[in-house]
Write a structure and sequence with these properties.
InterPro entries: UCP026631, YdbS-like_PH
Number of helices: 12
Number of strands: 22
Protein name: YdbS-like PH domain-containing protein
Strand order of the largest sheet: 8-7-6-12-11-10-9
Keywords: Membrane, Transmembrane, Transmembrane helix
Pfam families: bPH_2
Largest sheet: 7 strands, antiparallel
Length: about 475
């Protein structure tokens, strides 16, 4: 899916060396500023933070009269706005970004100056976020991901949306060694839409999630108790956290995933989503370390699944347990679409086409019901592990992405003559573990996976199968 863009390019000059485009010398000494409205957006964010902090104090039981409450709210908003405007102006005034021949660089700081460097050869992806307040002014922030762990993300706030898109094209072109000359338009990469998840499906999926039903049910029960049972109004204090839980679920799963679009380009998959705040995220094919196929209990009745992906450098998101994060590949999908997308990223990973090694019947002591739903298996390209009877999860790990393999056996496992096999990947939603296999079988599985990880080369990108498209 192509994004609209104008023909205004950043001041790029002739390349200094083959495959490495250059810029005019002035860009390396003067740099470029972010948008002047950065200070206004920063002030609005601080004002909103002050108001939220005041509401939080009120909900925690701090007493406020009507007049005092209104004055406190006004003071929090005005104070936050003033502080945010001053801090935002200083940040804008002392921040410069540079697009040099070999790297991008961001210099910032009022008292202590810092210089953040992003070499093009280490640049993995460039994402665009449009926070709600910034979106009102037509601004966006740029996230640059480098190879290298938790400190690999660099953020540039705020640019005009068209400028952010143009800068993303420049950075990605340089990262892939493409020559970019002065005055040469950089066309948006051609993309094919794989799936568009409609808002009504997002809403229905949220309503059928167990945590939403539990939190909404708690609110209803507490309200009913306050009206029916004498002297039960003390229980109403639990409505606030339960209601906050409901709002959080709706915000992270409905509002954040609104108009979810997954598309495919030559360099990777792109995810665009969001109602109030919009985000555009790119997942390069070569950075995919594994996929988790999640089937919540009620979703299985109608055949829905959720796909999460291990991406090198992203790590574990604090929102992953809520079902939305940088690692959400598809929030809701039919089995056919989920299977096609998984095959696109990890070929030969069909759970129905694998010889399964089940958990030992002697492991019923550890999971009286769940042991029947645990198994591992391997195809010529992929290691698979499944567990869960309330929420079923199938983890897919390409053999050539295996970082290490562990064989674990605790005292109780030794007593039951069982052991567990762990296939390690970078931190993320994928947790490929074969729990409580027969001890000799677990050892054989671990050794075989080590051999596959060592000997099997990565698949050719040209051999990746086409994907089907879905617009539900």
């Amino acid at each position: 899916m192509s994004e609209p863009h104008d023909e205004t390019d950043l001041p790029l000059g002739p390349p200094e060396a083959s495959g490495t485009p250059a810029v005019p010398e002035g860009a390396q000494t003067e740099g470029r500023r972010t948008h002047p409205l950065t200070a206004v957006v920063q002030g609005g964010l601080w004002a909103a933070g002050g108001a939220i902090g005041l509401f939080n104090a009120f909900f925690n039981g701090e007493g406020f009269g009507v007049v005092r409450g209104l004055l406190s709210l006004a003071a929090a908003v005005v104070g936050g706005l003033v502080i945010g405007l001053v801090a935002g102006y200083l940040r804008w005034r002392f921040t410069r970004y540079f697009i040099d021949g070999m790297e991008a660089r961001i210099e910032s700081g009022v008292v202590f100056r810092t210089s953040r460097r992003i070499p093009y050869e280490r640049l993995q992806s460039v994402d665009i976020d449009e926070p709600f307040l910034a979106r009102l002014f037509g601004l966006a922030e740029l996230h640059m991901e480098m190879a290298g762990g938790s400190e690999s993300r660099t953020t540039l706030r705020f640019l005009r949306l068209d400028e952010a898109r143009q800068l993303r094209r420049v950075l990605l072109s340089r990262a892939h060694g493409t020559d970019v000359h002065e005055g040469q338009p950089i066309a948006e990469e051609q993309r094919t839409v794989i799936a568009v998840v409609s808002p009504d499906r997002i809403i229905v999926g949220t309503l059928l999630s167990l945590d939403f039903l539990i939190s909404a049910g708690a609110v209803v029960l507490l309200l009913a108790a306050g009206f029916i049972i004498p002297d039960a109004w003390a229980l109403l204090g639990g409505i606030i956290p339960a209601g906050f839980w409901v709002v959080q679920i709706v915000g992270t799963r409905v509002i954040a995933q609104w108009n979810f679009t997954l598309s495919r380009g030559a360099r990777g998959l792109r995810i665009e989503r969001g109602l109030l705040s919009r985000s555009s995220q790119t997942i390069p094919f070569e950075r995919v370390q594994g996929i988790a196929v999640v089937e919540p209990f009620l979703w299985r009745k109608i055949g829905w699944q959720r796909l999460s992906v291990d991406v090198a450098g992203y790590g574990v998101s604090s929102e992953e347990e809520s079902g939305v994060s940088d690692t959400t590949l598809l929030p809701i999908a039919d089995p056919q679409l989920a299977r096609a997308v998984a095959e696109e990223l990890i070929p030969l990973s069909d759970p129905d086409a694998v010889l399964r090694v089940p958990a030992s019947p002697r492991s019923w002591l550890f999971a009286p019901i769940g042991w029947r739903f645990r198994w591992v298996g391997a195809t010529p390209r992929t290691f698979l592990a499944q567990e869960g009877w309330i929420q079923r999860t199938t983890d897919l790990v390409p053999h050539h992405k295996t970082q290490s393999v562990a064989l674990r056996q605790g005292p109780l496992q030794r007593w039951r003559n069982v052991a567990s096999v762990e296939v390690h990947t970078p931190p993320g939603p994928v947790d490929a573990v074969g729990e409580h296999l027969e001890a000799p079988t677990a050892r054989a599985v671990a050794l075989e996976q080590l051999d596959r990880a060592r000997d099997l080369p990565p698949p050719s990108a040209a051999s990746a199968p086409p994907v089907v498209t879905d617009e539900h």
